[in-house]
Amino acid sequence: MFSDADMEARRWLRDMMGEAGLNATIDGVGNVFGASPNPGPALLIGSHSDTQPRGGWLDGALGVIYGLEVARSLGENQATSHLAIDAVAWADEEGSYLSCLGSQSFCGVLSPEEEISAANHAGETAEQAIARVGLTDVERVRLDTTRHVGYLEAHIEQGPKLEESGDVIGVVTSIVGIRTLHITFSGQQNHAGTTPMDRRSDAAVALFGYAVTLGEQLSELAGPTTVWTFGNARLDPGTESIIAGRADLVLQFRDPTDDVLDRFEQAAFAHAEQAAGSGPVDVSVKRARGPIPPTKMDDHLQAHIARAAEGRIPGRWVHMPSAAGHDPMILSDHIPCAMVFIPSIDGISHDFAENTSDEDIVMGCRVLADAAATIMS
Ligand code: HGY
Ligand code: MN
Ligand code: MN
Predict the structure, then answer these.
(1) Looking at ligand 1, which atom is closest to the CA of residue 93?
(2) Which of 23, 25, 15, 26 has its CA nearest to residue 42?
(3) Alpha carbon nearest to ligand 1 atom 6, residue
(4) In angstroms, what is the span from residue 135 Cα to ligand 3's centroid?
(5) Quick check: CB of 60 below 6 Å from ligand 1?
(6) Quick check: CB of 94 below 6 Å from ligand 1?
(7) Ligand 3 center–CA 283 separation, angstroms
(8) What is the largest CA-CA distance in the chain?
(9) At what angle do helices 358-376 and 61-76 cross, to 10 degrees?
(10) d(CA 68, CA 139)
C-alpha cells in the first residue's frame, strides 16, 4: 500500500474508470472511486487493490476489476444503462498500515489518532505515507446513504471448499471475527558463552515455550472452524552469540463466534501470566488492534446473488462463511453488504501461486452483474 507501484495502479484504475464513463477520483486516503453519472440510488461494487507481501494476483484485484466491468457493461446495455453502479478500490484492506484503512475512512470510523500511530513494518505511519504520495490535502469520499443502497464484493475464496465441492459460486453468509494480540517477552541480554544456563533470562526461549504450550491449549478450546496463526516473531538482538533480552510475537485468531474468540483471548492472557510467574522472563499481552467481530451478510442481497447463480449455473453454488477478512466487516455496519466467492485452485492464496480458472473468473463476473441488475431494478 502507498508504494510507487500501488499508486501507479490506482492512477491507471482511475483512468480506466473514466474511460468507462464513470466520474473517477482517488480520494485523500487512496480509495479509487468511479461514480456513475446516473442519479442514485446506486449500488457500490468493488474490493481492495492493495495486497500482501508476496500476495497473489487475484486477492482484491478480482473484485475491483469486476466492479469496473459490471459498471461498464450494465452502462452499455440499453436495458440497464439507467441503473447507477459505482465502482471502488479500497485502500489498505490488508493492513500494511491499518486493516481496512480505506473503508474505515469511507464510513467515517477512522480515528485521526490511528492514522498518526498506525505504521507499516518499516515504521512509516499512515499519515506520513499519505503525505509522501501527495494525498494529505485531497478530499476524502464519505459514504452517502442517500445514494448508496448497498455494497457488493466479489472475491476469490482463498480456501479449498468450492473446489472440493465442485461449486463455482459461493454466496457468503458471514465473515469470521478476527482478533490480534501482541505478546512481549522481556528478559536479560547477555553473553551466550559465559552465562551459565541456570542464570539466564532468555526471551527467545520464553517465546518458543509460550507458543508451543499455548498452541496445545488452543487446540482444546477451538471450535470446528477456528484458526490461529503465530506471526511476526522477532528476537532482539536475534544473533546466536547474544541471549535475547527481548522477543515479540503476534497471535491472530479467527472464528465465526465471539465466545470462541473470547475463550482464546482469555487463554492467551492467562498463559502469559502463568509463564511470567513460573520463569525468569516477564511476559505481557496486549491487543495489537481492535477486535473485528463476526459480520453477517445481508439476506436480501444474498438472495439476489443466489438467484443469479442458480440462473447461470443451476445447483453449482453454495451458501458459505468467509474465513478471510474483507472490507464488508466495516461497511456492513453502515450499508447492506453481500459477497460472491469464486474458487481458488488448490485453495491457495496470499502466495504468488494463487490462481482461478478463466471460466470461473468469467462466471463470477456474470453472476455479479446479474445480481446487481436485479438488485437495482
Ligand atoms: O487476512 C485476511 O483475511 C484478508 O486477506 N486481509
Ligand atoms: Mn488478503
Ligand atoms: Mn482480500
Answers:
(1) 6
(2) 23
(3) 94
(4) 24
(5) no
(6) yes
(7) 33
(8) 81
(9) 50
(10) 22
Instruction: Give strand pairing partners of 183.
Output: 249, 285
Query: In the chain, which ranges are continuous DSSP H helix?
Result: 4-19, 61-76, 101-106, 112-117, 126-132, 161-165, 203-221, 258-278, 299-312, 328-331, 358-376
User: pLDDT tens digits, residue range 5-58?
Assistant: 999 999 999 999 999 999 999 999 999 999 999 998 999 999 999 999 889 999
Q: Are strands 177-186 and 282-287 parallel, antiparallel or unpaired?
A: antiparallel
Q: What is the pLDDT of residues 114-143, one digit of tens each?
A: 888 889 989 999 999 999 999 999 999 999
254 CB neighbour count, 10 Å cutoff: 24
Nearest CA to ligand 1 atom 4: 325
Encode pLDDT of 219-261 as tens digits: 999 999 999 999 999 999 999 999 999 999 999 999 999 999 9
Tell which atom from ligand 1 comes closest to the C-alpha of 254. Answer: 3
Rounded (10°) CA dihedral 352, 353, 357, 363: -50
Q: What is the mean pLDDT of the chain?
A: 96
pLDDT tens-digit readout, 162-200: 999 999 999 999 999 999 999 999 999 999 999 999 999
Q: Distance from the CA of 323 to the center of ligand 2, in angstroms?
A: 11
For residue 22, the SS3 value is coil
Computed from CA positions of residues 312, 315, 321, 323, in that sequence, does the dihedral angle turn out positive or negative? negative
Under the banding of pLDDT at 50, 70 and 90, the label for residue 299 is very high
Distances in Å between the Cα of 359 and the Cα atoms of 66, 80, 278, 313 are: 14, 24, 58, 12
